[in-house]
C-alpha cells in the first residue's frame, strides 16, 4: 500500500467539494470563516489543476463572460486614482466571486452534489432567519435611527438584519434564496397538478413550503421597500413562465393597503408617496453620481472607491462624518466604478446564464433551477434600481455561488453534447 504526503486527485476533489459546501454555509453566517474556506478551496483547486495538467482557457462562452468581467474590473482598479484600495477591493470581492463561481461550476458536477449544495444553501438561510428572529425579539436595535425616517415612520421600531448586519442586505440575500426555493416549489407543484410528476415529489413540496414561508416572513420584516418591489417583480415573472394564476396574488397588495393599518402597510404606501428622507437622498445621490459617470465613462473610478470619490461631487448633505459607500443604484454604481463596458459585461453575465439555462435539457430538478436563475436575475436587476446590495461581500459571494451552481448544469450538458458528437 502506497502512502503519500499529499492527498490523491480523488481526495483533493472530495476536500474541495466539502469546502464549497462550507463556504455556502459559513459565508452568510460568518464571512471571515467563509473566506478562509473559500481560499483553501481555491488553493486546493490550483494544486488539482497542476497535478492533473488540466490548466486551460475557460470553456464555453459563459465562462468567458465571467472572465472578461473579472479582468475588466481588475484593469479598471489598476487605473484608478485610488489603485491600492481599488485593487484590494477587487481581489476581495470580484476575484473571490469569480473563484467561487469556477469552483462550483467545476467541482459540483453531479445530481447528488447539486442537491447537497441546495440543501446547504436552504438550511443556512433558515438558520439566518432564526438568528434574525432572536435578535428581532430579544436584542435592542441601536441602528434603527440610521435605517428609518422617524418622522415618516414613527411606529417602526425594529427592522430585521440578522448576520447580514443591515436590513437591506438581509433582504437581498433572502431574495436570492427565495428565487430558488419558490421556483422549485412552483415547478414541482405545477408538475404534480399536470400529472407529469409522481407522488414522490409531494414530500419535497411539503418540505419546501415551510422553508419558503419562513424566508418570506423574514424578508417582510426587513421592511425593505426595494426588496418588496423586487419580490413583486419575481411574482410577475413566475406568473408568466410557471403559473398564470399566481398573478392573482398581486391583488392582495391593494387589499392589504386598504384594510391593514400596520407598519408593513405604511411602508407600502410610502412607495407611492415618495416623500421621505430616503427617497430624497437617493435622487440627490443619483444626480451627483451622473457627474462621476460623465467624467469617467470607460474605465470608471475603480471598484469600491465610490465613497472616496463621491465627496467631491456631493452637494446634498455636507459633513465630514457623512459617508456614501455606494450609489444606491446598481446601474449607476457600476457605471461610476467600472465604466460602461463593465456594466455591460455584468449584465451579459447575468442574462447569459438565464438564456443558457432556459435551453437546459434534463429532469425537473434542472428545469426548476433554470426558472430559479431567471427569478434571481429579475430580483437583482429590479432591486438594483434603488440599491446596490452587491457591495456586500456576503451577498456578492452568495450571488456567484448560485450562478456557479447553474453554470455547473450548463457545463455538464456541454460535456455530454461533445461526447455524443464524438
From TrEMBL:
Which part of the chain is the O-antigen ligase-related domain? 211-347
What topology in the membrane does the UniProt record assign? Multi-pass membrane protein
Report the InterPro entries cross-referenced here. O-antigen_ligase-rel_domated (IPR007016), WaaL-like (IPR051533)
* CC terms in the record's Gene Ontology section: membrane
The record lists the membrane-crossing segments as: 20-47, 59-79, 85-104, 116-139, 170-189, 205-223, 235-260, 330-356, 368-385, 391-410
Keywords, A to Z?
Membrane, Transmembrane, Transmembrane helix
Task: State the compartments where it is located.
Answer: Membrane
Name the PANTHER family for this protein. LIPOPOLYSACCHARIDE BIOSYNTHESIS PROTEIN PA4999-RELATED, TEICHURONIC ACID BIOSYNTHESIS PROTEIN TUAE
- Entry protein name: O-antigen polymerase
Upper classification of the source organism reads: Bacteria, Bacillati, Bacillota, Negativicutes, Veillonellales
Amino acid at each position: 500500500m502506497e502512502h503519500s504526503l499529499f492527498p490523491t486527485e480523488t481526495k483533493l476533489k472530495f476536500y474541495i467539494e466539502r469546502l464549497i459546501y462550507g463556504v455556502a454555509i459559513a459565508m452568510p453566517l460568518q464571512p471571515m470563516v467563509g473566506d478562509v474556506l473559500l481560499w483553501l478551496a481555491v488553493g486546493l483547486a490550483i494544486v488539482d489543476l497542476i497535478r492533473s495538467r488540466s490548466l486551460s482557457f475557460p470553456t464555453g462562452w459563459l465562462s468567458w463572460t465571467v472572465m472578461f468581467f473579472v479582468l475588466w474590473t481588475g484593469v479598471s482598479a489598476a487605473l484608478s486614482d485610488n489603485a491600492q484600495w481599488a485593487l484590494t477591493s477587487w481581489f476581495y470581492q470580484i476575484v473571490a466571486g469569480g473563484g467561487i463561481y469556477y469552483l462550483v461550476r467545476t467541482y459540483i458536477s453531479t445530481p447528488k452534489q447539486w442537491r447537497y449544495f441546495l440543501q446547504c444553501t436552504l438550511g443556512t438561510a433558515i438558520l439566518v432567519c432564526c438568528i434574525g428572529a432572536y435578535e428581532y425579539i430579544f436584542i435592542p436595535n441601536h441602528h434603527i435611527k440610521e435605517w428609518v425616517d422617524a418622522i415618516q415612520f414613527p411606529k417602526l421600531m425594529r427592522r430585521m438584519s440578522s448576520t447580514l448586519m443591515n436590513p437591506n442586505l438581509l433582504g437581498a440575500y433572502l431574495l436570492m434564496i427565495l428565487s430558488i426555493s419558490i421556483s422549485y416549489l412552483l415547478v414541482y407543484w405545477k408538475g404534480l397538478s399536470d400529472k407529469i410528476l409522481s407522488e414522490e415529489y409531494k414530500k419535497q413540496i411539503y418540505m419546501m413550503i415551510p422553508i419558503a414561508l419562513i424566508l418570506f416572513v423574514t424578508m417582510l420584516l426587513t421592511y425593505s421597500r426595494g426588496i418588496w418591489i423586487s419580490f413583486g417583480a419575481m411574482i410577475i415573472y413566475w406568473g408568466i413562465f410557471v403559473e398564470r394564476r399566481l398573478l392573482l396574488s398581486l391583488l392582495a397588495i391593494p387589499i392589504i393597503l386598504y384594510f391593514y393599518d400596520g407598519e408593513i402597510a405604511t411602508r407600502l404606501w410610502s412607495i407611492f408617496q415618495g416623500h421621505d428622507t430616503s427617497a430624497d437622498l437617493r435622487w440627490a445621490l443619483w444626480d451627483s453620481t451622473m457627474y462621476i459617470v460623465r467624467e469617467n465613462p470607460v474605465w470608471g473610478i475603480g471598484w469600491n472607491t465610490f465613497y472616496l470619490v463621491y465627496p467631491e461631487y456631493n452637494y446634498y448633505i455636507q459633513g465630514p462624518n457623512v459617508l456614501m459607500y455606494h450609489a444606491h443604484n446598481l446601474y449607476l454604481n457600476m457605471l461610476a466604478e467600472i465604466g460602461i463596458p463593465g456594466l455591460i459585461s455584468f449584465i451579459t453575465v447575468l442574462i447569459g446564464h438565464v438564456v443558457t439555462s432556459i435551453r437546459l435539457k434534463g429532469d425537473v430538478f434542472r428545469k426548476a433551477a433554470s426558472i430559479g436563475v431567471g427569478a434571481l436575475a429579475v430580483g437583482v436587476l429590479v432591486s438594483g434600481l434603488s440599491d446596490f446590495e452587491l457591495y456586500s461581500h456576503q451577498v456578492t459571494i452568495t450571488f456567484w455561488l448560485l450562478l456557479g451552481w447553474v453554470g455547473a448544469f450548463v457545463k455538464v450538458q456541454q460535456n455530454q453534447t461533445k461526447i455524443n458528437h464524438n
